[in-house]
Design a protein that fits this description.
Elements: H1 8-15, E1 23-26, H2 32-39, E2 46-50, H3 53-65, E3 72-76, E4 91-97, H4 99-108, E5 118-123, H5 128-136, E6 139-149, E7 152-161, H6 168-173, H7 175-180, H8 183-204, H9 210-229
Parallel strand pairs: 1-2, 1-4, 2-3, 4-5
Antiparallel strand pairs: 5-7, 6-7
Helix pairs in contact: 4-5, 8-9
Protein name: tRNA (Adenine-N(1))-methyltransferase
Organism: Psychrobacillus soli
Keywords: Methyltransferase, Transferase
Length: about 230
């Protein structure tokens, strides 16, 4: 993978970026995504944010090697700290992290979201944490997709400002994804069901306690919700 030939995962994230938006890519790693978006003419200006020194230096090197220093500003900082009001960022992408971490980044940087119109988020796991945060903070899901690459399944969630009220099932599996019921969606949740049933079997063999009972009830609820959605 490089800035001109993205992985399918990042190419799908890129497909949701609107033309000529001002972009901030948080946790940009090698800055492949913003470089690709400039090369393809989708954006003219972008910020690549990194909190880890190694990836930050890799992003700087990549942007220099692509000759894009004037278009992409690589910044070192934690989450949305790299964004300033004068940047007038309209779109934020965060890809390749766990859902709870992405949600915590958005929560910590809520004040930086005033000019932002689109959040394009690709959690590696636990996408529900993002849907929970979005519903609480008045962001609505306008698109979702699910894809498989190298035996890993990824969800991508696109948010815009607005209220939404999701059911418990929609929070878990996604309002768009549960309607589409793609083959990859079926594969993901069938695998999750198998794992939860395995855990339930193990719990049935352990000594009963309030904690075990609570865990069983949580799993039973999730199993029921997923079975309804398949």
């Amino acid at each position: 993978m490089n800035a001109k030939n993205l992985s399918e995962r990042l190419k799908t994230v890129a497909s949701f970026v609107e033309k000529n938006t001002i972009l901030a890519d948080i946790g940009s790693d090698h800055a492949y995504l913003p470089c690709y978006l400039v090369h393809t003419g989708i954006i003219t200006q972008g910020i690549a944010g990194e909190v880890v020194k190694g990836p930050f230096e890799s992003a700087q090197k990549q942007v220099r090697s692509e000759g894009l220093e004037k278009q992409i500003d690589v910044r070192f900082g934690n989450g949305l700290e790299v964004i300033q009001p004068t940047d007038k960022v309209q779109t934020i992408t965060i890809a390749g992290m766990g859902g709870p971490l992405i949600a915590s980044i958005l929560e910590a940087g809520k004040e930086k979201l005033k000019t932002v119109e689109n959040l394009i988020l690709q959690p590696n796991v636990h996408a529900k944490a993002i849907r929970d945060w979005a519903q609480k903070e008045n962001w609505k899901i306008v698109n979702e997709t699910i894809l498989e690459e190298h035996d890993k399944i990824y969800e991508i969630i696109v948010l815009q400002k607005g209220q939404m009220q999701l059911t418990e099932q929609e929070l878990l599996v996604g309002p768009f994804l549960t309607k589409e019921k793609s083959a990859i969606f079926h594969k993901k949740w069938s695998n999750e069901l198998s794992e939860w049933l395995r855990i339930m079997d193990q719990l049935s063999k352990t000594s009963e306690s309030p904690e075990v009972q609570q865990k069983k009830e949580e799993l039973e609820r999730k199993i029921a919700l997923v079975k309804e959605s398949l």
